[in-house]
């Protein structure tokens, strides 16, 4: 299960998608009475045309990169797996309901579904909302099968090894610095997540998955540290930043921000920059447009010689094998 995309890069479809996305109380965590007018009246009308433009820059003949690449990963997993493998999305299509219906139709005796949220790191706006939504649908429509979840895996040795294998060939080309750029979050979300984590640790919250002991920002730093260790990167050759900030007045996001850092790196002597985005399993708008296009332009306009974007794990062999191994171990 991944995040999901609009049905097309047309403004009307992007508007519908953003409305669903931003009305999620785990994404915009204001009381619903404020959220509704804010999203419908202000955020979506202003954002949809710009997002639509960004989506059209990366849209493929066969659809949104995120959807197509998630499906390719599922197909690669299916090659090594006896049971049906499907993709579902938190927002837009295909919804978990549609996928559950199809699975049940194909096998009325279906006993168990294993859901793999394609987010290495836990936070309420990514991993948790996917799980909570799938659970709510599972309960509401009284599906007769049980539902199990793959836990967040930001520090799992197999995930770290798959990332290191993805990055290694790029290091051989020579580089001044490698930037680990993760999706950003409002600071407020971190405080809420900290509370959830301590309730989990006190036994006051039952989740159905293993909750990390540290918050999103610390999980991201830990992913960077482990990959750097695995690749023996010298301390001065890598950095961690946070991208995709939704600018809102009085709403600080976790720092440092990726975009301004791309513009100051050349003055710090970084001519050749590698960028990797470990919070995303599949390439999407945020990596292909924001980093590989806009970020590259910003860095190279500020005096950098070259920004080389390292694609996500997608359906790379070590990662596909890892997905297969983890799911088989849960059967
Ligand atoms: C308050 C706003 C947002 C939070 C919090 C947030 C967290 C978050 N998102 C991802 C993964 C993805 N986000 C993507 C796009 C995207 N994200 C937001 C807002 C928040 N995300 C918006 C409004 C959008 C839509 C595009 C835009 O208008 O800029 C995507 C890509 C989707 C695609 O179709 O390609 C992904 C993936 C994570 C992992 C996360 C928390 C860590
Ligand atoms: Fe996002
Ligand atoms: Fe973005």
Oligomeric state as shown: single chain
Average pLDDT metric:
97
What compounds sit in this structure?
A: ligand L6N33NVT, fe (ii) ion
Query: In percent, how much strand structure appears in the residues?
Result: 5-15%
Query: How does CATH name the architecture of the largest domain?
Result: 3-Layer(aba) Sandwich
Low-confidence stretches: none
Shape: globular
Portion of residues within helices: 40-55%
Topology:
Layout: H1 11-22, H2 32-58, H3 65-78, H4 96-106, E1 112-115, H5 124-140, E2 146-149, H6 157-172, E3 177-183, H7 187-201, H8 216-230, E4 238-243, H9 258-264, E5 272-276, H10 285-288, H11 290-301, E6 306-310, H12 317-330
Parallel strand pairs: 1-2, 3-4, 3-5, 5-6
Helix pairs in contact: 1-2, 6-8, 6-12, 9-11
Bound molecules: the ligand C=CC1=C(C)c2cc3[nH]c(cc4nc(cc5[nH]c(cc1n2)c(C)c5CCC(=O)O)C(CCC(=O)O)=C4C)c(C)c3C=C and fe (ii) ion (2 copies).
The site of ligand L6N33NVT has 22 residues, from α2, α5 and α10.
